[in-house]
Amino acid sequence: MKHAAAFGALTILLGGLAVSAHADQGAIEYRQAVFQAIGGHMTALVRIVRREVPHTDDLAVHAAGIADLAPLTEHIFPEGSGDGRTDALPAIWNNPDDFSQRRDAFIEAAEGLRNAAGGPMNQFMPAFQTLGGTCQGCHDNYRAD
Ligand code: HEC
Predict the structure, then answer these.
(1) Which of 19, 26, 104, 117 could disulfide-link 60, Cβ–Cβ 3.0 to 4.6 Å?
(2) What spacing in Å lies between the alpha carbon of 2 and ligand 1's midpoint?
(3) What would the pLDDT profile of 16-39 be if each residue is shown by its tens digit?
(4) How remote is the CA of residue 136 from the centroid of ligand 1, in Å?
C-alpha cells in the first residue's frame, strides 16, 4: 500500500514536470546543474589545497569529477537555450568558434588536472591554476555577472 502511494506520487510529480517544464528551461536548468556539480568539485579542491581540511587523498576524486563532467559542455548549450532564466550570454551562439576553443581548453585543462592528481603538489598546483583560468576565461566573456 505504501509503495502504491509512493508510486502514485512519483507519477504525478513526473507528469507535472513533463507538462510544466518548458523544454528550453529544462535545458537551461540541466546546464546549470552540470556547472553546479563542477563548481562543487572546484570548491572542494580549494578547501583541500588551502589545507582547511586534511583530505589530500580526495584530490583525485574531485579532479576526476571535473574531468568526467567537462565534456558535457559540448552538448549543454543547444540553440535556443539562451532564452529564459539563464546567465548564458547570446555571444555563445554568435561566436561559436571562440566559444568552442574556450570550451576545448577547459576540457583539456580538466584532463590535465586529472593526470596531475596523485602526483606531487608542485605539479598539481599549476594544473589547478590553468584549469581555474579556463573557467574564468569563459565566464568573463560568456556569462552574465
Ligand atoms: C566554455 C564556457 C565555460 C567554462 C569553461 C566554464 N563555465 Fe561555468 N558557466 C558558463 C556559463 C555560460 C554559465 C551560465 C549557465 C546558465 O546560467 O545557463 C556558467 C555557470 C556556472 C556556474 C553557476 C551555475 C548556476 O547555478 O547557475 C558555476 C558554479 C560555474 N559555471 C562554475 C564553473 C567552473 C568551476 C568552471 C571551471 C572548472 C567553469 N564553470 C567553466 C560557462 C563556462
Answers:
(1) 117
(2) 41
(3) 555 445 668 999 999 999 999 999
(4) 9
